[in-house]
Design a protein that fits this description.
Chains A, B: Residues 17-77 form the HTH tetR-type domain. Chains A, B: Residues 40-59 bind DNA. Chains A, B: Keywords: DNA-binding, Transcription, Transcription regulation. The structure is a homodimer of 216-residue chains. By secondary structure, chain A is an all-alpha fold. Chain A folds into two domains: 11-65, Homeodomain-like (Arc Repressor Mutant, subunit A); 70-209, Orthogonal Bundle (Tetracycline Repressor, domain 2), CATH 1.10.357. Chain A is 69% helix and 0% strand. Chain A contains nine helices and no strands. Chain A has helices spanning 11-34, 41-48, 52-58, 70-82, 90-103, 115-123, 126-150, 158-185, 188-209. In chain A, helix 8 (158-185) runs antiparallel to helix 9 (188-209). The first copy, chain A, is globular, with a radius of gyration of 20 Å. Residues 1-6 of chain A have low confidence and may be disordered. The A-B interface holds A 129-130, 133-134, 137, 158, 161-162, 165-166, 168-170, 172-174, 176-177, 194, 198, 201-202, 204-206, 208-210 and B 129-130, 133-134, 137, 158, 161-162, 165-166, 168-170, 172-174, 176-177, 194, 198, 201-202, 204-206, 208-210. Chain A binds a DNA duplex (30 and 30 nucleotides) through helix 1 and helix 3.
DNA sequence: ATATCAATATATACTCGGTATAATTTCATA
DNA sequence: TATGAAATTATACCGAGTATATATTGATAT
């Protein structure tokens, strides 16, 4: 349970992280095994050998034990936009990011291998789907602000919101169409191609919606 | 409470509908007055003078007492697509529907007058926002099937899903940008114009994403 | 009219996620 | 070693939703 973590952290922090990890591990295992809705907080606490309140201490919502990498996605997208080369539009930067994710088999885009089970577990629970939609919704707002900021417009710029809405919608459709292929045919290569084709078409259309602006 | 309803229905059905209406009325009033999350099922049952279980009998989820017109929206969209003139594309039919909604001050598009409070109440509750997102998500699937069926393609046609995703995303962004104007400036005319401008741009872009197909 | 059956309403008791509060333990530090 | 803050935990509570059993009410056949 202690995992000999980085010695930079003091014991208190190490123990806290270890407890958090124990809860997360138990929860993930139970969710995958029995389904999100079938696992109770008490069972997770029992499995992790902590008190019930400790679970809520680390994870305010049950869904937080399942979706644990929101920040990484946000930072990846932020880096792609900020770190793009001169004279490259933000939309192109995001399109290239999508291609890089497929190429690298990036697990933050869970279309291949083991992460497919993660997606299946999420799709089997109305609560998890609701949380995923909430994350998409919040991310769309953040993306709009990122895009606006990247070309020095105010964060509530209407073009940015339209563009962000279309980009996220495209990503979502592309992901699910790709997922369906991966899940039914088991063909990761085909899934990736479907995903990228839809990304390219959708992003191009999204760009057209704000043509004449510096977003494209 | 009886409201001398249509005599076509038998007494049993009339009473059932009256009970449902009493619950809906009490709930709506309380939600608007105190906020969705601040009102308990027991308070609604008390106000409507029915038992707690009767409330759940008519409305399986608390959110169902707030969003009560899903079907009307679906049917309106369905009618617009099915009832379009020959040689008119489904996308154009939907674009015209948006313009007609603004022109008619259609309350199913709550951008003007009293329905603005309805939107504000929804936006103040995380539970209601979640339900709205769920409805959008399901509607996107239904719309994709409608679109595919309207040009005799299978319901799971990938182009239809991309198109539906972009159309719903556009509608959503256009609605919120319009709502913000209506809410802040109180200018219904300007709100309508913003909404329609975004609809036109987004729908055109969505059409571009599936250019070469009969959807456009 | 009355017996009968099904739809509706209701009471009771329960599960589960989440909150509030207070007490206790554990670590860092002066 | 004393002190205080962070972390854990127990207890009690709230509210949405479910299960189940019972009572009531209206429609219908005799």
């Amino acid at each position: 349970m202690q995992e000999h973590a980085s010695p930079k952290l003091d014991r208190r922090t190490r123990k806290r992280l270890a407890t958090r990890q124990a809860i997360s591990d138990s929860a993930t295992r139970l969710f995958m095994e029995h389904g999100f809705d079938q696992v109770t907080i008490d069972e997770i606490a029992e499995a992790a050998d902590v008190g019930r309140m400790t679970v809520f201490n680390h994870f305010p919502r049950k869904e937080d034990m399942f979706f644990d990498r929101e920040d990484e996605v946000r930072e990846m997208v932020f880096a792609a936009i900020q770190g793009r080369e001169e004279e490259m539009s933000p939309v192109t930067a995001l399109r290239l990011l999508a291609h890089r994710c497929i190429e690298d088999r990036n697990p933050l885009l869970p279309l291949f291998g083991a992460p497919l089970r993660f997606v299946a577990t999420a799709l089997a629970s109305e609560a998890l789907k609701a949380r995923a939609r909430q994350m998409c919704s919040e991310f769309t707002r953040v993306l709009a602000a990122m895009l606006a900021e990247s070309i020095d417009r105010p964060a509530d710029d209407t073009d940015a919101h339209l563009l962000a809405g279309l980009l996220v919608a495209t990503w979502s459709v592309a992901f699910f169409e790709g997922y369906n292929v991966a899940d039914r045919n088991g063909d990761a290569e085909a899934a990736g191609q479907i995903f990228l084709r839809l990304i390219d078409r959708g992003f191009q259309a999204a760009a057209a919606a704000v043509s004449g602006t510096p977003y494209v």
